[in-house]
Design a protein that fits this description.
This is Cysteine desulfurase family protein (TIGR01976 family). Helices cover 40% and strands 14% of the residues. By secondary structure, the chain is an alpha/beta fold. It has a seven-stranded mixed sheet with strand order 2-8-7-6-5-3-4. It has a four-stranded antiparallel sheet with strand order 9-10-13-12, covered by helices on one side. A two-stranded parallel ribbon has the order 1-11. It starts with a helix and ends with a helix.
Length: 401
Protein backbone atom coordinates (compact mmCIF):
# COMPACT_ATOMS: atom_id res chain seq x y z
CA UNK A 1 0.00 0.00 0.00
CA UNK A 2 1.49 3.34 -0.98
CA UNK A 3 -0.39 6.57 -0.46
CA UNK A 4 1.96 9.50 -1.09
CA UNK A 5 0.27 12.62 0.18
CA UNK A 6 2.56 15.04 -1.67
CA UNK A 7 1.96 13.24 -4.97
CA UNK A 8 -1.76 13.21 -4.32
CA UNK A 9 -1.85 16.92 -3.43
CA UNK A 10 0.12 17.79 -6.54
CA UNK A 11 -2.77 16.44 -8.62
CA UNK A 12 -5.03 19.27 -7.35
CA UNK A 13 -4.09 22.59 -8.95
CA UNK A 14 -6.50 24.52 -6.74
CA UNK A 15 -4.55 23.62 -3.59
CA UNK A 16 -1.89 26.05 -4.76
CA UNK A 17 -4.18 28.88 -3.66
CA UNK A 18 -3.42 27.87 -0.10
CA UNK A 19 -6.87 27.47 1.46
CA UNK A 20 -7.31 24.77 4.10
CA UNK A 21 -10.19 22.73 2.73
CA UNK A 22 -12.37 21.00 5.31
CA UNK A 23 -15.38 21.37 3.02
CA UNK A 24 -15.07 18.31 0.77
CA UNK A 25 -18.32 16.94 2.20
CA UNK A 26 -20.00 19.80 0.36
CA UNK A 27 -17.90 19.31 -2.77
CA UNK A 28 -14.27 18.44 -3.35
CA UNK A 29 -11.72 20.21 -5.48
CA UNK A 30 -11.18 18.79 -8.95
CA UNK A 31 -8.10 16.80 -9.89
CA UNK A 32 -6.08 18.10 -12.85
CA UNK A 33 -6.79 15.14 -15.19
CA UNK A 34 -10.49 15.74 -14.58
CA UNK A 35 -10.27 19.34 -15.75
CA UNK A 36 -8.04 18.26 -18.64
CA UNK A 37 -10.57 15.64 -19.77
CA UNK A 38 -13.38 18.20 -19.83
CA UNK A 39 -11.16 20.69 -21.65
CA UNK A 40 -10.25 18.10 -24.31
CA UNK A 41 -13.90 17.43 -25.04
CA UNK A 42 -14.89 21.08 -25.04
CA UNK A 43 -12.09 22.04 -27.43
CA UNK A 44 -12.22 18.94 -29.63
CA UNK A 45 -14.58 17.65 -32.28
CA UNK A 46 -17.22 15.99 -30.16
CA UNK A 47 -20.71 16.09 -31.61
CA UNK A 48 -24.00 14.82 -30.30
CA UNK A 49 -24.20 11.02 -30.34
CA UNK A 50 -24.23 9.44 -33.77
CA UNK A 51 -22.81 6.32 -35.38
CA UNK A 52 -22.53 8.08 -38.76
CA UNK A 53 -19.42 10.19 -38.22
CA UNK A 54 -16.37 10.17 -35.98
CA UNK A 55 -17.21 13.15 -33.70
CA UNK A 56 -20.61 11.54 -33.04
CA UNK A 57 -18.98 8.19 -32.31
CA UNK A 58 -16.65 9.93 -29.86
CA UNK A 59 -19.68 11.05 -27.87
CA UNK A 60 -21.00 7.49 -27.80
CA UNK A 61 -17.64 6.26 -26.55
CA UNK A 62 -17.48 8.95 -23.87
CA UNK A 63 -20.85 7.89 -22.46
CA UNK A 64 -19.94 4.19 -22.53
CA UNK A 65 -16.60 4.85 -20.87
CA UNK A 66 -18.24 6.85 -18.08
CA UNK A 67 -20.74 4.06 -17.38
CA UNK A 68 -17.89 1.54 -17.21
CA UNK A 69 -15.92 3.82 -14.90
CA UNK A 70 -18.76 4.34 -12.41
CA UNK A 71 -19.55 0.62 -12.52
CA UNK A 72 -15.95 -0.08 -11.52
CA UNK A 73 -16.11 2.51 -8.77
CA UNK A 74 -19.11 0.98 -7.02
CA UNK A 75 -19.04 -2.65 -8.20
CA UNK A 76 -22.05 -2.38 -10.52
CA UNK A 77 -22.72 -3.16 -14.16
CA UNK A 78 -22.09 -0.50 -16.83
CA UNK A 79 -25.55 -1.15 -18.27
CA UNK A 80 -27.10 -0.26 -14.93
CA UNK A 81 -25.48 3.17 -14.55
CA UNK A 82 -27.94 6.04 -15.04
CA UNK A 83 -26.52 9.55 -15.14
CA UNK A 84 -28.30 12.69 -13.99
CA UNK A 85 -27.57 16.23 -12.90
CA UNK A 86 -27.47 15.49 -9.19
CA UNK A 87 -28.22 12.84 -6.62
CA UNK A 88 -31.29 14.84 -5.67
CA UNK A 89 -32.75 14.84 -9.18
CA UNK A 90 -31.99 11.12 -9.65
CA UNK A 91 -33.65 10.25 -6.37
CA UNK A 92 -36.74 12.22 -7.38
CA UNK A 93 -36.74 10.35 -10.68
CA UNK A 94 -36.50 6.92 -9.07
CA UNK A 95 -39.02 7.79 -6.37
CA UNK A 96 -41.56 9.12 -8.87
CA UNK A 97 -41.04 6.12 -11.13
CA UNK A 98 -41.35 3.52 -8.38
CA UNK A 99 -44.37 5.26 -6.89
CA UNK A 100 -46.31 4.89 -10.11
CA UNK A 101 -47.18 1.34 -9.00
CA UNK A 102 -47.85 2.09 -5.32
CA UNK A 103 -51.28 1.60 -3.79
CA UNK A 104 -52.80 3.50 -0.87
CA UNK A 105 -51.56 1.84 2.31
CA UNK A 106 -48.19 0.85 0.85
CA UNK A 107 -45.27 1.95 2.98
CA UNK A 108 -41.82 3.53 2.67
CA UNK A 109 -39.18 3.72 5.36
CA UNK A 110 -36.86 6.73 5.63
CA UNK A 111 -34.33 7.67 8.28
CA UNK A 112 -33.87 10.87 10.24
CA UNK A 113 -30.11 10.48 9.82
CA UNK A 114 -30.33 11.04 6.08
CA UNK A 115 -29.68 14.08 3.92
CA UNK A 116 -33.02 15.52 2.86
CA UNK A 117 -32.33 14.34 -0.71
CA UNK A 118 -33.04 10.78 0.46
CA UNK A 119 -36.05 11.73 2.57
CA UNK A 120 -38.23 14.38 0.96
CA UNK A 121 -38.63 12.74 -2.47
CA UNK A 122 -39.97 9.60 -0.72
CA UNK A 123 -42.19 11.58 1.64
CA UNK A 124 -43.66 13.57 -1.25
CA UNK A 125 -44.31 10.67 -3.61
CA UNK A 126 -45.77 8.70 -0.69
CA UNK A 127 -48.21 11.55 -0.03
CA UNK A 128 -49.26 11.55 -3.69
CA UNK A 129 -49.79 7.78 -3.68
CA UNK A 130 -51.53 7.61 -0.30
CA UNK A 131 -48.61 5.59 1.04
CA UNK A 132 -47.48 5.62 4.66
CA UNK A 133 -44.07 6.96 5.70
CA UNK A 134 -42.31 5.22 8.55
CA UNK A 135 -39.35 6.86 10.24
CA UNK A 136 -36.17 5.21 11.49
CA UNK A 137 -34.69 7.21 14.35
CA UNK A 138 -31.02 7.68 15.17
CA UNK A 139 -29.79 7.53 18.76
CA UNK A 140 -29.01 11.15 19.73
CA UNK A 141 -26.50 10.01 22.36
CA UNK A 142 -24.39 7.87 20.04
CA UNK A 143 -25.27 9.07 16.54
CA UNK A 144 -25.96 5.44 15.55
CA UNK A 145 -28.88 4.30 13.43
CA UNK A 146 -29.96 1.14 15.29
CA UNK A 147 -30.81 -1.69 12.90
CA UNK A 148 -33.14 -3.47 15.32
CA UNK A 149 -35.90 -0.88 14.78
CA UNK A 150 -36.14 -1.87 11.11
CA UNK A 151 -37.61 -5.23 12.09
CA UNK A 152 -40.67 -3.28 13.31
CA UNK A 153 -40.62 -0.59 10.64
CA UNK A 154 -40.56 -2.98 7.68
CA UNK A 155 -43.81 -4.81 6.99
CA UNK A 156 -45.40 -6.75 4.16
CA UNK A 157 -46.59 -3.38 2.78
CA UNK A 158 -43.09 -1.86 2.59
CA UNK A 159 -42.11 -0.99 -0.95
CA UNK A 160 -38.87 0.94 -0.39
CA UNK A 161 -36.39 1.39 2.42
CA UNK A 162 -34.30 4.51 1.84
CA UNK A 163 -31.15 4.82 3.90
CA UNK A 164 -27.81 6.53 3.73
CA UNK A 165 -24.50 4.70 3.54
CA UNK A 166 -23.02 7.56 5.58
CA UNK A 167 -24.38 10.64 7.32
CA UNK A 168 -23.18 13.87 5.73
CA UNK A 169 -23.54 15.59 9.11
CA UNK A 170 -21.70 13.27 11.50
CA UNK A 171 -20.26 10.48 9.35
CA UNK A 172 -22.23 7.56 10.83
CA UNK A 173 -22.16 4.50 8.57
CA UNK A 174 -25.39 2.58 9.20
CA UNK A 175 -25.36 -1.19 8.74
CA UNK A 176 -26.86 -0.95 5.28
CA UNK A 177 -26.38 -4.65 4.48
CA UNK A 178 -28.46 -5.68 7.50
CA UNK A 179 -31.15 -3.10 6.70
CA UNK A 180 -31.25 -4.20 3.05
CA UNK A 181 -31.60 -7.84 4.09
CA UNK A 182 -34.67 -6.95 6.15
CA UNK A 183 -36.10 -5.02 3.19
CA UNK A 184 -35.45 -7.89 0.81
CA UNK A 185 -37.14 -10.37 3.14
CA UNK A 186 -40.48 -8.68 2.34
CA UNK A 187 -39.67 -7.97 -1.30
CA UNK A 188 -38.96 -4.25 -0.74
CA UNK A 189 -36.20 -2.36 -2.53
CA UNK A 190 -33.35 -0.69 -0.69
CA UNK A 191 -32.39 2.75 -2.02
CA UNK A 192 -28.98 3.75 -0.72
CA UNK A 193 -27.61 7.29 -0.64
CA UNK A 194 -23.91 6.80 -1.31
CA UNK A 195 -23.11 10.48 -1.79
CA UNK A 196 -21.18 10.92 1.45
CA UNK A 197 -19.62 7.44 1.62
CA UNK A 198 -18.28 6.96 -1.92
CA UNK A 199 -15.38 9.44 -1.60
CA UNK A 200 -14.03 7.81 1.54
CA UNK A 201 -13.93 4.05 1.09
CA UNK A 202 -14.16 1.20 -1.40
CA UNK A 203 -17.78 0.55 -2.40
CA UNK A 204 -19.45 -2.68 -3.42
CA UNK A 205 -23.14 -2.31 -4.11
CA UNK A 206 -23.55 -6.10 -4.05
CA UNK A 207 -22.30 -6.55 -0.51
CA UNK A 208 -24.28 -3.52 0.62
CA UNK A 209 -27.43 -5.12 -0.76
CA UNK A 210 -28.26 -1.81 -2.46
CA UNK A 211 -30.92 -2.18 -5.14
CA UNK A 212 -30.22 1.44 -6.06
CA UNK A 213 -27.04 3.32 -5.12
CA UNK A 214 -26.72 7.01 -5.86
CA UNK A 215 -23.45 8.92 -5.89
CA UNK A 216 -22.33 12.41 -6.92
CA UNK A 217 -19.05 12.85 -8.79
CA UNK A 218 -18.42 16.33 -7.43
CA UNK A 219 -17.84 14.78 -4.00
CA UNK A 220 -15.02 12.58 -5.34
CA UNK A 221 -12.86 14.97 -7.34
CA UNK A 222 -15.12 14.97 -10.37
CA UNK A 223 -17.59 17.28 -12.10
CA UNK A 224 -21.15 18.21 -11.12
CA UNK A 225 -22.83 15.05 -12.27
CA UNK A 226 -24.40 12.12 -10.44
CA UNK A 227 -25.11 8.47 -11.14
CA UNK A 228 -27.69 6.05 -9.83
CA UNK A 229 -26.63 2.42 -10.12
CA UNK A 230 -29.00 -0.55 -10.17
CA UNK A 231 -29.04 -3.81 -12.08
CA UNK A 232 -30.11 -3.48 -15.72
CA UNK A 233 -32.91 -5.96 -14.95
CA UNK A 234 -34.30 -3.70 -12.24
CA UNK A 235 -34.23 -0.65 -14.50
CA UNK A 236 -35.92 -2.70 -17.26
CA UNK A 237 -38.91 -3.30 -15.02
CA UNK A 238 -39.48 0.43 -14.50
CA UNK A 239 -41.10 2.94 -16.81
CA UNK A 240 -40.48 6.64 -16.16
CA UNK A 241 -42.41 9.42 -17.83
CA UNK A 242 -40.33 10.29 -20.87
CA UNK A 243 -40.39 11.76 -24.35
CA UNK A 244 -41.85 9.60 -27.11
CA UNK A 245 -38.85 9.55 -29.50
CA UNK A 246 -36.17 9.21 -26.82
CA UNK A 247 -34.57 5.81 -26.38
CA UNK A 248 -36.50 3.21 -24.42
CA UNK A 249 -33.35 1.17 -23.90
CA UNK A 250 -31.87 0.76 -20.45
CA UNK A 251 -30.18 2.82 -19.08
CA UNK A 252 -30.91 5.61 -21.62
CA UNK A 253 -34.64 5.34 -20.82
CA UNK A 254 -33.90 7.19 -17.55
CA UNK A 255 -31.70 9.94 -18.98
CA UNK A 256 -33.44 13.01 -20.29
CA UNK A 257 -32.11 15.26 -23.02
CA UNK A 258 -28.55 15.52 -24.21
CA UNK A 259 -25.93 14.80 -21.56
CA UNK A 260 -22.81 16.87 -20.94
CA UNK A 261 -20.11 14.91 -22.76
CA UNK A 262 -17.43 17.07 -21.17
CA UNK A 263 -18.70 16.17 -17.70
CA UNK A 264 -18.98 12.49 -18.59
CA UNK A 265 -15.38 12.43 -19.81
CA UNK A 266 -14.45 14.17 -16.56
CA UNK A 267 -16.26 11.46 -14.57
CA UNK A 268 -14.12 8.80 -16.21
CA UNK A 269 -11.00 10.83 -15.47
CA UNK A 270 -12.06 11.21 -11.83
CA UNK A 271 -12.48 7.46 -11.44
CA UNK A 272 -9.06 6.91 -13.06
CA UNK A 273 -7.63 9.47 -10.64
CA UNK A 274 -9.12 7.64 -7.64
CA UNK A 275 -7.78 4.33 -8.98
CA UNK A 276 -4.29 5.85 -8.96
CA UNK A 277 -4.28 7.15 -5.38
CA UNK A 278 -2.20 4.14 -4.39
CA UNK A 279 0.65 4.45 -6.85
CA UNK A 280 1.64 0.81 -6.37
CA UNK A 281 -1.82 -0.66 -7.01
CA UNK A 282 -1.96 -3.16 -9.85
CA UNK A 283 -4.59 -5.17 -11.68
CA UNK A 284 -7.70 -4.02 -13.49
CA UNK A 285 -9.31 -0.70 -12.63
CA UNK A 286 -11.72 -2.21 -10.10
CA UNK A 287 -8.81 -3.86 -8.28
CA UNK A 288 -6.81 -0.61 -8.34
CA UNK A 289 -9.83 1.30 -7.06
CA UNK A 290 -10.25 -1.11 -4.17
CA UNK A 291 -6.58 -0.84 -3.24
CA UNK A 292 -6.48 2.93 -3.69
CA UNK A 293 -9.66 3.69 -1.79
CA UNK A 294 -8.49 1.39 1.02
CA UNK A 295 -5.21 3.31 1.17
CA UNK A 296 -6.97 6.68 1.03
CA UNK A 297 -9.37 5.60 3.77
CA UNK A 298 -6.50 4.59 6.05
CA UNK A 299 -4.78 7.93 5.42
CA UNK A 300 -7.98 9.94 6.00
CA UNK A 301 -8.83 8.03 9.17
CA UNK A 302 -5.38 8.75 10.61
CA UNK A 303 -5.82 12.50 10.11
CA UNK A 304 -9.41 12.34 11.27
CA UNK A 305 -8.42 10.72 14.58
CA UNK A 306 -6.03 13.66 15.17
CA UNK A 307 -8.78 16.12 14.31
CA UNK A 308 -11.36 14.55 16.62
CA UNK A 309 -8.89 14.13 19.48
CA UNK A 310 -7.75 17.72 19.04
CA UNK A 311 -11.28 19.15 18.98
CA UNK A 312 -12.34 17.02 21.96
CA UNK A 313 -9.46 18.37 24.01
CA UNK A 314 -10.46 22.03 23.55
CA UNK A 315 -12.50 23.50 26.43
CA UNK A 316 -15.69 25.06 25.18
CA UNK A 317 -15.94 22.87 22.07
CA UNK A 318 -18.89 20.48 21.84
CA UNK A 319 -18.94 17.66 19.30
CA UNK A 320 -22.15 16.17 17.90
CA UNK A 321 -22.12 12.59 19.22
CA UNK A 322 -21.05 10.06 16.59
CA UNK A 323 -19.73 6.51 16.53
CA UNK A 324 -15.98 5.96 16.40
CA UNK A 325 -16.19 3.98 13.15
CA UNK A 326 -17.49 6.54 10.68
CA UNK A 327 -16.67 8.56 7.61
CA UNK A 328 -14.18 11.31 8.46
CA UNK A 329 -16.71 14.04 9.16
CA UNK A 330 -17.28 15.81 12.46
CA UNK A 331 -19.79 18.50 13.42
CA UNK A 332 -19.08 20.79 16.38
CA UNK A 333 -19.97 24.02 18.09
CA UNK A 334 -17.98 26.48 20.08
CA UNK A 335 -19.87 27.44 23.24
CA UNK A 336 -21.44 30.88 23.11
CA UNK A 337 -20.76 31.26 19.39
CA UNK A 338 -23.22 30.92 16.52
CA UNK A 339 -21.89 28.24 14.12
CA UNK A 340 -22.08 30.75 11.25
CA UNK A 341 -19.81 33.08 13.25
CA UNK A 342 -17.30 30.29 13.77
CA UNK A 343 -17.44 29.38 10.10
CA UNK A 344 -16.90 33.01 9.07
CA UNK A 345 -14.02 33.44 11.55
CA UNK A 346 -12.35 30.32 10.17
CA UNK A 347 -13.04 31.54 6.65
CA UNK A 348 -11.27 34.81 7.44
CA UNK A 349 -8.18 32.71 8.19
CA UNK A 350 -8.44 30.82 4.91
CA UNK A 351 -10.03 27.74 6.47
CA UNK A 352 -13.06 26.43 4.56
CA UNK A 353 -15.69 24.83 6.81
CA UNK A 354 -19.46 24.99 6.40
CA UNK A 355 -21.96 25.70 9.12
CA UNK A 356 -25.70 25.10 9.22
CA UNK A 357 -27.64 21.89 8.60
CA UNK A 358 -26.12 20.98 5.19
CA UNK A 359 -29.60 19.63 4.34
CA UNK A 360 -29.39 17.08 7.16
CA UNK A 361 -32.63 18.81 8.09
CA UNK A 362 -34.20 16.00 10.11
CA UNK A 363 -31.00 15.26 12.00
CA UNK A 364 -30.50 18.84 13.18
CA UNK A 365 -34.19 19.31 13.89
CA UNK A 366 -34.28 16.15 16.04
CA UNK A 367 -31.11 17.28 17.84
CA UNK A 368 -32.78 20.62 18.59
CA UNK A 369 -29.89 22.45 16.92
CA UNK A 370 -31.32 23.57 13.60
CA UNK A 371 -33.00 26.76 14.72
CA UNK A 372 -29.84 27.91 16.46
CA UNK A 373 -27.60 27.42 13.45
CA UNK A 374 -26.82 23.70 13.26
CA UNK A 375 -23.11 23.10 13.68
CA UNK A 376 -19.75 23.66 12.01
CA UNK A 377 -18.78 20.71 9.82
CA UNK A 378 -15.23 19.68 9.06
CA UNK A 379 -14.49 16.67 6.92
CA UNK A 380 -11.20 15.15 5.87
CA UNK A 381 -10.58 14.25 2.25
CA UNK A 382 -7.54 12.51 0.81
CA UNK A 383 -5.83 15.81 -0.11
CA UNK A 384 -5.86 17.20 3.43
CA UNK A 385 -2.50 17.35 5.18
CA UNK A 386 -1.42 17.02 8.81
CA UNK A 387 -0.57 20.72 8.60
CA UNK A 388 -4.18 21.51 7.61
CA UNK A 389 -5.39 19.78 10.76
CA UNK A 390 -2.85 21.56 12.96
CA UNK A 391 -3.85 24.94 11.50
CA UNK A 392 -7.55 24.24 12.01
CA UNK A 393 -7.06 23.08 15.61
CA UNK A 394 -4.97 26.16 16.43
CA UNK A 395 -7.69 28.40 14.98
CA UNK A 396 -10.47 26.66 16.92
CA UNK A 397 -8.42 26.88 20.12
CA UNK A 398 -8.06 30.63 19.62
CA UNK A 399 -11.76 31.07 18.86
CA UNK A 400 -12.80 28.98 21.87
CA UNK A 401 -10.34 30.69 24.20
C1 LIG B 1 -25.39 12.49 1.83
C2 LIG B 1 -25.83 13.36 0.71
N1 LIG B 1 -26.87 12.97 -0.03
C3 LIG B 1 -27.32 13.70 -1.07
C4 LIG B 1 -26.75 14.90 -1.38
C5 LIG B 1 -27.27 15.69 -2.54
O1 LIG B 1 -26.38 15.55 -3.60
P1 LIG B 1 -26.60 16.39 -4.94
O2 LIG B 1 -26.04 17.75 -4.69
O3 LIG B 1 -25.83 15.63 -5.98
O4 LIG B 1 -28.05 16.41 -5.22
C6 LIG B 1 -25.67 15.37 -0.62
C7 LIG B 1 -25.05 16.68 -0.92
O5 LIG B 1 -24.42 17.27 -0.10
C8 LIG B 1 -25.20 14.57 0.45
O6 LIG B 1 -24.17 14.95 1.21
Amino acid sequence: MAFEIETVRAAYPALAEGFRHFDAAAGSLVARPVADAAHTVLTGAVANRSTAFAPGRRAVEIVDAARAAVADLVGGEPGGVVFGNSATSLTYLVARTLARSWQPGDEVVVSRLDHDANIRPWVQVAADAGAVVRWAEFDPKTGELPVAQYADLITERTRVVAVTAASNAIGTRPDVAAIAALAHAVGAACYVDGVHSTPHQPVDVGSLGADFYVTSAYKWSGPHLAACVASPARWSGLQPQKLRPSSDDVPERFEFGTPSFASLAAVTAAVEHLAGLDGTATGDRRARLTASMTAAEAYEQGLFAELVQGLSAIDGVWLCPAPEDRCPTVAFRIEGQHPAETSAALGAEGICAFSGDYYAYEYFTAMGLRDSGGAVRTSIYHYNSAEDVAVLLAAVRRLAG
